[in-house]
């Protein structure tokens, strides 16, 4: 995999670059946000340190996301930034807290790439959709295209992050069913996810905000979430 490694600490970049090259990845190291934005050609995954000398790492993340759907994993020691990293503002796919092990990072890299199969649909549990004929799933005034990953609400396009889309697609499969937090996390994130389940709440919050009404996604307290009755257009 061709990986853009955005890290201004030379020692970290060298050690990480070497370890990932040994695992067969093609590493493109850059040490500034500007170089990252200029070096996106052909990149299949971005590892992004938030503390960069020139631009704010979150701004870099946001700009990469605006130009490409490529998976972005943020490397950060800033626990206070995680909500913003994963939420509406930046569009990262995952994060790894510093200090981290190469083993942990590799697991996250595999997880974010595995979630997207050839046709752009999250792979876990979606095999039937990948090879089946149903591409458009509709619920009330909401419709999603599983192949193009386009989302329309009242015929207007919605921009969702990769995780938000996977989450919405899972809820829309069985709209009346309450999906447990565990099921959602294992399917949309990874069966080996060991991070905070707060990540799920951050994504639910972001999705509700983009859908424009809290009622779309009902909370089943202590259990999980389900797609609710769509609100009337005001
Ligand atoms: Ca740094």
C-alpha Rg (nearest Å): 18 Å
- Please tell me the CATH architecture of the largest domain by its name: 3-Layer(aba) Sandwich
Task: Domain count, please report it.
Answer: 2
List low-pLDDT spans: 116-133
Computed structural class:
alpha/beta
Approximate strand percentage: 15-25%
Please count the helical segments.
9
Molecular shape: elongated
CATH topology of the largest domain: Rossmann fold
- Can you write the helix and strand succession as a string? EHEHEHEHEHHEEEEHEHHEE
Just give the CATH class of the largest domain.
Alpha Beta
Mean pLDDT: 82
Total beta strands: 12
Helix residue percentage: 25-40%
* Strand arrangement across the biggest beta sheet: 2-1-3-4-5
Bound molecules: calcium ion
Please tell me about this protein's structure.
With about 230 residues, the chain is an alpha/beta fold. It folds into 2 domains: about 1-115, Rossmann fold (3-Layer(aba) Sandwich), CATH 3.40.50; about 135-225, Winged helix-like DNA-binding domain superfamily/Winged helix DNA-binding domain (Arc Repressor Mutant, subunit A, Orthogonal Bundle). It has 9 helices and 12 strands. It has helices spanning about 10-20, 35-40, 55-65, 80-85, 100-115, 125-130, 160-175, 180-190, 200-210, and strands spanning about 1-5, 25-30, 45-50, 70-75, 95, 135-140, 140-145, 150-155, 155-160, 180, 215-220, 225. A 5-stranded parallel β-sheet has the order 2-1-3-4-5, with helices on both faces. The longest helix has 14 residues, at about 200-210. The chain is elongated, with a radius of gyration of 18 Å.
């Amino acid at each position: 995999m061709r990986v853009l490694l955005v890290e201004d600490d030379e020692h970290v970049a060298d050690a990480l670059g070497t370890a990932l090259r040994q695992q067969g990845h093609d590493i493109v190291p850059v040490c500034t946000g500007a170089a990252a934005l200029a070096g996106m050609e052909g990149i299949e995954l971005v590892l992004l340190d938030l503390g960069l000398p020139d631009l704010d790492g979150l701004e870099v993340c946001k700009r990469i996301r605006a130009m490409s759907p490529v998976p972005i994993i943020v490397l950060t020691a800033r626990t206070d930034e995680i909500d913003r990293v994963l939420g509406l503002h930046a569009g990262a796919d995952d994060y790894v807290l510093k200090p981290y092990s190469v083993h942990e990072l590799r697991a996250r890299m595999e997880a974010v790439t595995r979630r997207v199969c050839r046709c752009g649909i999250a792979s876990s549990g979606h095999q039937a959709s990948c090879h089946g004929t149903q591409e458009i799933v509709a619920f009330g005034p909401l419709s999603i295209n599983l192949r193009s990953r386009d989302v329309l609400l009242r015929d207007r396009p919605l921009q969702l992050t990769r995780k938000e889309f996977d989450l919405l697609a899972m809820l829309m499969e069985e709209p009346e069913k309450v999906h447990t937090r565990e099921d959602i996390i294992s399917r949309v994130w990874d069966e080996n996810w060991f991070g905070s389940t707060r990540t799920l709440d951050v994504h639910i919050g972001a999705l509700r905000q983009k859908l424009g009404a809290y009622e779309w996604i009902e909370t089943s307290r202590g259990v999980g979430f389900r797609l609710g009755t769509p609100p009337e257009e005001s």
